[in-house]
Amino acid sequence: MDQASAFSFDQSYCGLPPTLETLWAGWNFDPVLLVALVVIGLIGGFTLRHSSPRRQLALAGAWLLAAVLFVSPICALTVALLSARVGHHVLLTMVVAPLVALSLPPAWGRKASPLLPLVVSTVALWLWHAPDVYTSAFAHPAIYLLMQATLAGSFIWLWLTLLRNDAPLAAGLSALSSSIQMGLLGALLVFAPAPLYLPHLGTTMAFGLAPLGDQQLAGLIMWVPANLPLMALVLWRLVGVLRPNRAAEQ
Questions:
Q1: In this predicted model, what pLDDT tens digit does every residue of 155-165 receive, in sequence order?
Q2: Of 96, 100, 109, 198, which has fewest CB within 10 angstroms of its CB?
Q3: Contact 150, 91 (CB under 8 A)
């Protein structure tokens, strides 16, 4: 029996790997997750009831996308496809995280250096995509939830400093550094000569993808679209660096 067929998904948080025919049935109605979403939504809504519409919309968008990522069949799809799980992580770190950061009090992050959250988020990203550590997330729901919490938490912290820091040059360089390391990880997945992730060796063909093709698609997702929010922030921060010079010339 080969490793792929012997791999067990019995403790996978999002269930067994689906096929195209069974995917739509793969909703995740974990009561703990549903209660957590309701509690977070209620607390967030109550806390921001007198805040600006911008912060309220940011939190609502983050909450809605997080609910889709963890409740809808997207969760089940990440069990079968590495590209789906990488896409899941990209949406969590590049969309949900900055929306949560925008919903936080405006004074937060203004004086905080982005260096430490940059290091922590980079370590979290590379650690959880190391093949053996990645595989461990299928061994128990607690490890899976730890993966998601550390990725989300570290990138919320990073985005808070990137968006709010009073030093635009430092924030822009940190965003560029995060983009570079994420692109490097994506490139490694694209150019790896063989599939690296044991859980997906026997699950991708149900979706018309060979394991190596699925891995290459995952790398492309991390290499290109994942970098767009960070590069947009780099450009925005660059404008912030140049603006005082234009004002001085006038």
A1: 999 999 999 99
A2: 198
A3: no
